[in-house]
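From the methods appendix. Each design record in this collection lists the tokenized structure first, followed by the designed amino acid sequence. Records were kept in a plain field format so they could be parsed without special tools. The example shown here is representative of the layout used throughout.

RECORD:
FOLD TOKENS (252 positions):
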């Protein structure tokens, strides 16, 4: 591993550790916030619809948000309905579209996410089109086709310019379909020249995390969740929800 990618990875890890410490300080023993959360919100549960049918995401959401304060349902438990058209030009717009739609439809607080890969040499593409990148470029369909197209598009791009990031935006809507909070987080990396690893999904086999010297498809899932765009966004959403519930704000 080169010195610069290693340094970048170490910085990212340090920022993550600092953030984790802040979260711990704000939410654990000794914090006035925490005492208030325990005494005033004890016993209160909020029903949350996790607006996805992706079992991996559902598991991750439940693990990260915990079961003390929330009870969950997800789209697989509701009668099948047509998916929302993701017409937004930003991750935030699409996450909000989905959260509002499902909250209004099922009359419950709903949490939705939108995510994707931004590649600097492609001016931020595939971005919000990540899931259907090959399809939109008449180059096939699905993860393998997306990855093959990306590698082709970056074939002439030197290693130093293959920087990219995964982005995740989470949106929480209340039962009336009003957006209560949104969170955005990222994970920095570079695009490899060939797929590596079998874990994960999507662009994971091409996404190299400098600090670990592995792609996110080579990392154990728990390690990926700790550093990933979605994992970090979920941690921050949990913190924001803790604080809102401690202030007795109605999220339902
Ligand atoms: P969505 O948020 O489920 O619509 O995902 C959008 C697309 O972004 C996925 O189909 C993947 O191609 C890509 N993507 C988002 N997050 C990840 C990730 O953690 N690993 C790999 N690919 C991802």
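DESIGN:
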């Amino acid at each position: 591993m080169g010195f610069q990618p290693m340094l970048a990875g170490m910085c990212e890890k340090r920022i993550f550790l600092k953030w984790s410490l802040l979260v711990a300080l704000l939410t654990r023993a000794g914090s006035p916030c925490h005492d208030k959360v325990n005494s005033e919100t004890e016993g209160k549960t909020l029903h949350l619809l996790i607006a996805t049918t992706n079992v991996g995401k559902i598991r991750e959401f439940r693990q990260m948000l915990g079961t003390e304060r929330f009870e969950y349902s997800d789209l697989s438990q509701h009668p099948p309905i047509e998916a929302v058209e993701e017409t937004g030009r930003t991750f935030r717009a699409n996450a909000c579209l989905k959260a509002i739609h499902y909250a209004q439809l099922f009359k419950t607080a709903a949490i939705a996410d939108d995510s994707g890969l931004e590649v600097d040499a492609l001016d931020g593409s595939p971005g919000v089109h990540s899931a259907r990148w090959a399809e939109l470029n008449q180059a096939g369909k699905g993860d393998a086709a997306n990855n093959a197209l990306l590698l082709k598009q970056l074939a002439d791009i030197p290693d130093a310019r293959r920087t990219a990031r995964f982005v995740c935006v989470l949106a929480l809507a209340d039962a009336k379909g009003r957006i209560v909070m949104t969170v955005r987080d990222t994970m920095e990396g570079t695009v490899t020249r060939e797929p590596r690893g079998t874990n994960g999904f999507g662009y994971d086999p091409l996404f190299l995390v400098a600090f670990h010297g592995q792609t996110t498809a080579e990392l154990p899932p728990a390690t990926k969740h700790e550093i990933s765009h979605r994992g970090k966004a979920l941690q921050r959403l949990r913190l924001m929800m803790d604080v809102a519930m401690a202030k007795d704000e109605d999220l339902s």
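APPENDIX NOTE: The first strand starts at residue 46 and ends at 50.
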